[in-house]
């Protein structure tokens, strides 16, 4: 065991565990992580790092310069989701918030970003306590708004690298419904590119009994949804993986009233820049053409609201990091994953400065519970209202993994 991990004692485990439960009980939506950021800043304050708050609103970057050597960036995300928690845990959330559409929504740390934040604080503490044993610079980044894949780009845009040095590597991890003590990784493209398009289709409202006097945006929307499914099935090769999902379709208020407009929310996934660009172009073509086919009097509004590139876990950097993690948990507990269709903006930070990113998933499930759930065919995964990592072993594991990965890149003192 390295010097840093010996610092994970009962007092630290209890304190970080309490902080985790506090974050879990008080989740905040993307770009609203004010209380969370205050808690992080409060935890960092006594450690002597150079702490910069308020980057892109709620983002935090903390730097510990500890002699000559490489710069290593450790990144955690802090935001929660509009999900009503059903875990029944004593520290379950009952929080609500106003979402970007002005709706009151329940809020839950259903993706486990509270775990990421707590583990990074734990790793920061261990690296501070063991600073005699290593040399270099560590940058800890607490990022807002991963769930809408906007926070990393926002932090870079708003001057992250005015405050922190360019790293040799960016390290990030995600808690996952795998047995605690296991790690999932993949060198190369790991998570999909994602883009989100909001569409407003314009018709002309009227009485449901007299469609000839109206221009029905509901039919226009329905035809658009169907036609969009032709992009992946008819325009891409079977070698190209992609998804086009219409997750939001809204129009009208009553059965016998033809509304003026209809709205679509469209989401894409892909694993290459070429396919990503093709999906965007094809979707725009279909949406405009279906509106024209309906005889729309006004062109549709198309707004690409957010998106992120493919998350690539740099192959060489991943190998170097995984060797250290294998020494910690055992090579047989590392699993190479297939590409993950979910998306993640952790890679954006390194991409902006030409630094490699290393990203891995670590298990947060009690092994027996995991085995039972898998046998029963209902594994509770991230974003589910009952997603609940097993706190203490998951924290200990996440802290040890992040600390070990950092030390794999820092010089020994
Ligand atoms: Zn998520
Ligand atoms: Zn997540």
Automatic annotation (TrEMBL):
InterPro entries, A to Z: Amidohydrolase, Bact_exopeptidase_dim_dom, Peptidase_M20, Peptidase_M20_dimer
Superkingdom, natural source: Bacteria
Transmembrane regions: none
Domain named Peptidase M20 dimerisation: residues: 198-292
Name of the protein this chain belongs to: Amidohydrolase
Organism placement in taxonomy: Bacteria, Bacillati, Actinomycetota, Actinomycetes, Kitasatosporales
């Amino acid at each position: 065991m390295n010097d840093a991990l010996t610092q994970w004692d009962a007092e630290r485990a209890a304190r970080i565990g309490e902080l985790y439960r506090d974050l879990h009980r008080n989740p905040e939506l993307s770009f609203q992580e004010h209380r969370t950021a205050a808690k992080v800043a409060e935890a960092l304050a006594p450690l002597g790092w150079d702490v910069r708050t308020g980057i892109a609103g709620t983002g935090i970057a903390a730097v510990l310069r500890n002699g000559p050597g490489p710069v290593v960036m450790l990144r955690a995300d802090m935001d929660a989701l509009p999900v009503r928690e059903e875990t029944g845990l004593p520290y379950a959330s009952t929080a609500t918030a106003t979402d970007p559409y002005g709706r009151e929504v329940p809020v839950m740390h259903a993706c486990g970003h509270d775990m990421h934040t707590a583990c990074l604080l734990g790793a920061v503490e261990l690296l501070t306590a063991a600073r005699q044993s290593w040399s270099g610079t560590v940058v800890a980044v607490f990022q807002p708004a991963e769930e809408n894949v906007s926070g990393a780009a926002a932090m870079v845009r708003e001057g992250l690298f005015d405050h922190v040095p360019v790293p040799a590597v960016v390290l990030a991890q995600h808690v996952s419904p795998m047995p605690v003590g296991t790690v999932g990784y993949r060198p190369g493209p790991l998570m999909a590119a994602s883009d989100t398009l909001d569409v407003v289709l314009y018709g002309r409202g009227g009485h449901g009994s007299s469609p000839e006097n109206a221009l029905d945006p509901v039919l226009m929307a329905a035809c658009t949804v169907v036609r969009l499914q032709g992009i992946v099935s008819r325009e891409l090769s079977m070698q190209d993986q992609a998804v086009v999902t219409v997750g939001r379709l809204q129009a009208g208020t009553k059965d016998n009233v033809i509304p003026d407009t209809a709205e679509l929310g469209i989401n894409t996934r892909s694993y290459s820049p070429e396919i990503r660009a093709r999906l965007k172009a094809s979707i725009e073509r279909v949406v405009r053409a279906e509106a024209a086919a309906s005889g729309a009097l006004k062109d549709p509004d198309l707004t690409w609201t957010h998106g992120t590139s493919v998350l690539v876990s740099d192959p060489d950097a991943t190998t170097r990091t995984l060797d250290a993690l294998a020494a910690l948990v055992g090579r047989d507990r590392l699993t190479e994953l297939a590409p993950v269709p979910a998306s993640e903006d952790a890679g954006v930070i390194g991409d902006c400065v030409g630094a490699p990113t290393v990203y891995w998933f670590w298990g947060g499930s009690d092994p027996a519970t995991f085995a039972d759930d898998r046998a029963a065919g209902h594994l509770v995964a991230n974003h589910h209202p009952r997603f609940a990592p097993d706190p203490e072993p998951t924290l200990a594991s996440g802290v040890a993994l992040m600390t070990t990965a950092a030390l794999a890149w820092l010089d020994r003192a």
